[in-house]
Structures are given as C-alpha cells and as structure tokens.
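All the exercises in this workshop are built on plain-text protein records. There is nothing in a record beyond a sequence line and a structure line. A learned vocabulary of local backbone shapes supplies the integers on the structure line. The question running through the whole workshop is how a given chain folds. Here is such a record, shown just as it appears in the course material:

***
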Amino acid sequence: MNMARGVSRRTASVAAPLMAVVLWTSCRTASAPAASDPSPAVWAPAASAPVPAASGPPPLRPAVVTERVVHDTDDPAIWLHPQDRSRSLVIGTDKNVDGGLYAFDLQGRVVGKVLGLKRPNNVDVEYGLSLAGARVDIAVVTERLANAIRVFRLPELTPIDGGGIPVFEGEALRDPMGIALYKRAGDGAIYAVVGRKTGPSGSYLWQYRLQDDGTGKVRATKVRAFGAFSGQGEIEAVAVDDALGYVYYSDEAVGIRKYHADPDVPGAGVELALFGTTGFQEDREGISIYTIDAGTGYILVSDQQANQFQVFPREGAGGNPHAHPRLKAVRVSTIESDGSEVTSARLGPRFPEGLFVAMSEGGVFHYYAWPDLARPELVVAPDGVRHADVTPDRSPRRAGLTRP
C-alpha cells in the first residue's frame, strides 16, 4: 500500500489516544443462520469509486458484505472454531487514530470488537499458544501510533499483552504495519513477523518469539531482522505458510519476496524467490494462501489498483519449489483492496468449500465462496483434500483439514 498516491481514505489526523474498550456479543451459543438468510449489507458497487472498465468477465460479486466499521477496514484474518466451523469468525481491523479490532460472523455481522486502538493496521491469527498452563488461540494486531503489537485471546478478544508490546525498539524508523504469525511444526513455537511503514533493506522486518512472561501475559523476544527492500513504495502485506515454513511479503512496487519462516534453519536470511514482478497495474498488496494436501495450493496477491487478485502456485513449478509463475487473475468487486485471507476449510452450509475474505473501500469486508474464484482453472478442495477425480466443478466430500 502507498498512502502517498492520492487515496483520501488513507489520511487521518492524530487525535488524543482513547482507552481500549472490549465489546462482545456471544458467538459461542448462537447457531449460524441458514445460507438463505440475508447478509447484513446488500452488495452494490461504490458510487464514488467505480471499478475501471476492463475486458473479460465481469467482476465477481461477493456472497456477503460485512456490516460497516466506524472508519476504514484494512486487513482480515480467519479464526476456525474448534468444534463447529459454521461458528468461525473473521477478525478485521478498523484503521484510524481511534480505530478498533472487530469480530464478524460468517453472515458478516459484528459480534465483538475492541475499540480505542491507535491506528491498528494488520492482523493475523494463530492457534495453541501456551499461556498460564493452557493452550489459547490468539489474534495479534499492529498498533502503529503506539509502536506496538497487541495480543488478544480468541474468540473473546480479551487482551493478554499487558497493554501492548513495543516493537522496533531503538530504531528511528518504527511505525509497525504488516504482521504474520508462524507456528513451527517441530516444537510448536509461535513467532510474529512484523513489518513497518519504512525501513532499511536487509532488516525491514523483525521476527519475535511469543511466550508466556510468567504471569499469564504474552511477551515478545526479538530473534532476527531480515528482508530485502527495493526502496520503492513500502512493505505492508506479510503472510506465512505454516506447513511449508515460508514467509512471503509484498515489496509493493517490485514483487513478492520469499524467505524461510524458521529463524533457526540454515540460510534463513537468504531470499528464496522474487516473483510477481510483472502483470500488476501498480501496487502488490494483501497475500493469502489456499492450502491443499501434499503441499499444493495457491498464493493470492492483491493487484490493488486493478481491483483483482493474481494467483500463483503454492508448490512452485517445474520441480522448483521457489518458482511461482502467474496462473490467473480474478476480478472481484472490492475497491482498492489491501488485506485478504483465504481458507480451504469447510465453514458450514454457507461456505462448504472454502472462504476468501478481502477488505474494500466503504469500511467493509467482502466474503467470496472459493469455487467462485477457482472456476474453471483452479482446484476446489474442501478441507484441503484433493482427490484424483477432483475438478473445479466437482469437489471431494470427505474432511481432512485440521486446525494447526
């Protein structure tokens, strides 16, 4: 994302900080409405920001548009409910000097929120952090004007960070923006990879180990700084593939860069790939990963000014796991989309074959059923299971995906 390119929704004056307030509507007991229930917002293109004319099929229409936040949506994450996937949540940021973190159900309704955050940017979700003798799921969000990250227990959005964890300490350039969480398969260690508004090439991103501080709160310990930067635009979007152990980030004017996510593997600081260098109208933004069994799947990247998402193979190509040629572009109805997230998990009757979520102008998030994006070139693999007889229009019907 580049705030200097005339997008008026991205500007805001600094106001006095507000105290964070947690508001919650229980999602534990409410059953999900049937797929025929109306969504909170009736989809319509933004009159003030029309989608540019383009050749090819018309843009996809979302299955659901969420209720509006107060200011400006920026980045979503998806939390999978451990027992009932239809009660899973979309966690999203409202980016402003008095912004917030919101929880939406699969019908797009606000069911919880934390207010009074100082320009929250990006958010990610991870499962099973060891805290006070228990395993808890967490959402971690960057709070730019506080130069901190915030950690909340899911699904209640209860703060468990003692009021915020400083990042980029000792640096002149701080302003945290992008974030992605990584859970190492070998030992279950959880890390946060944090980016910033601007920074030096070679150490633009810092990686932190998240642990119990001994009092039931989360502490963060820096383990490395890494990440090449072209010096053009900025780096905001960061995503981690837990299963394959890679971290991706958008050097927005140049391409998508790839590194090892594990800070302890040999060559962790060596760039593995730079792809998506052509075919984008302008900025490369949100990154999301659709996982299929055997390490296959897709990497989706927002082509922000074109209002579409470019798709690349997760597993690489031609026997090279770090070759990621473009497969297709999908036009959607989002306007100037920054953040996005996708899952191949079955999410009840409304999204039985996976869900793609992207932010849009107007203070909303759009939900799309994965098959709508996939057809006809890509695989539909509910719960990440690919069968030999799978085609994009005929999906497998057995479950296989488990939460990390």
Q: What stands out?
A: DSSP finds one helix and 26 strands in the chain.
